[in-house]
Specification:
Number of strands: 13
Mean pLDDT: 90
Radius of gyration: 18 Å
Shape: globular
Helix content: 25-40%
Strand content: 25-35%
Structural class: alpha+beta
Number of helices: 8
Order of helices and strands: EEHHEEHEHHEEEEHHHEEEE
């Protein structure tokens, strides 16, 4: 296969590579799938302690979303709940722990979409919102718009009573070291271009939702916006069709319109979610980009597809939770 991928249904353990099984006439009770970013992630470059930390963080995020779905809550609430712990965890490039811009500050992006009526909300370039995904949700629920950017997005979030912080809240030593290296070498590694978290879910009523949030690219230019806050690029959800959250080199994902391309292939071409995701990522690869996606179909069948060395990922449903990190697991 051209892509390192992991496709799982409720009866297949995480780590098996197989075609997505026919879910049959009975829809899954509920399911949540998450990612913590794709990129240069190898066993050789990961200490046992760091691997354990990432696994624990993924499990925390899965449980936060599962608690919503297990109790009959909505897919929309579940994806928001799942990404908040990752925004709060410095291991991930989202909230606290976001990468630095070239100017030594942080500009964060997030989006969320409800598959029921395809309502969506997004923020781009926020600098003071502790949890950007909450700001994206507020844009969807509390305004007539889909996206706010920059100081306007911060002001809107503050007016909604969201938790605001000083920009230095997002600082970590690890990200500052990465910034200093990129500025000194005047070059980014693949790892410097990646780092996003996201979730997709289906609830007991069959509703789909998706969410994506990121700190962007290390040493990015002021005002640079990647794919994460763009509906149709990194995030998309439509009931009965699919829900997608993407992670990777954002410029390429924008040009392909990865999330909408996947859902359109499911809806219009009759592709399964695995085939649709492979097709979209093949276009990304042809342009020179890499990354990955998590996808749920309208019956709860799901896929992890990525063309990078690894992707932090996990799934939880009524049968339990599973996580993985490396390619080939």
């Amino acid at each position: 296969m051209n892509f390192r991928k992991l496709v799982i249904a409720s009866a297949v353990l995480l780590g098996a590579c197989a075609a997505t099984p026919d879910p049959g006439p009975t829809m899954t009770e509920w399911r949540l799938v998450i990612h913590g970013g794709a990129g240069v992630i190898t066993r050789e470059g990961m200490s046992p302690e760091k691997e354990a930390a990432y696994t624990a963080a993924l499990e925390t995020a899965l449980e936060a979303g599962a608690a919503v779905l297990r109790n009959g809550g909505s897919a929309l609430d579940a994806v928001e709940a799942a990404v908040i712990p990752m925004e709060d965890d410095p291991l991930f490039n989202s909230g606290h722990g976001a990468v630095f811009t070239a100017a030594g500050t942080h500009e964060l992006d997030a989006s969320i979409m409800d598959g029921r009526a395809r309502n969506a909300g997004a923020v781009a370039g926020v600098t003071r919102v502790r949890n950007p995904i909450k700001a994206a949700r507020a844009v969807m629920d509390k305004s007539e718009h889909v996206m706010f950017a920059g100081t306007g997005a911060d002001a809107f979030a503050e007016a909604q009573g969201l938790d605001m912080v000083d920009n230095s809240y997002f600082d970590t030593d690890r990200r500052r070291q990465s910034l200093e290296r990129v500025l000194e070498e005047r070059a980014r590694t693949a790892a410097d271009r990646h780092g996003t978290v996201g979730a997709v879910a289906i609830d007991q009523d069959g509703n789909l939702a998706a969410a994506t949030t990121t700190g962007g690219m290390t040493a990015k230019a002021a005002g640079r916006i990647g794919d994460s806050p763009l509906i149709g690029a990194a995030t998309y959800a439509e009931n009965g069709v699919c829900a997608v959250s993407a992670t990777g080199h954002g410029e390429y994902f924008i040009r392909v319109g990865v999330a909408k391309t996947i859902c359109d292939r499911v809806k219009l071409a009759g592709d399964g979610v695995e085939a649709a995701a492979e097709s979209a990522l093949a276009e990304v690869a042809e342009l020179g980009g890499d990354g990955g996606v998590i996808v749920l179909d309208g019956d709860g069948g799901y896929a992890f597809v990525f063309n990078s060395e690894g992707m932090y990922r996990g799934v939880v449903d009524a049968s339990g939770a599973r996580t993985a990190i490396y390619g080939g697991e």
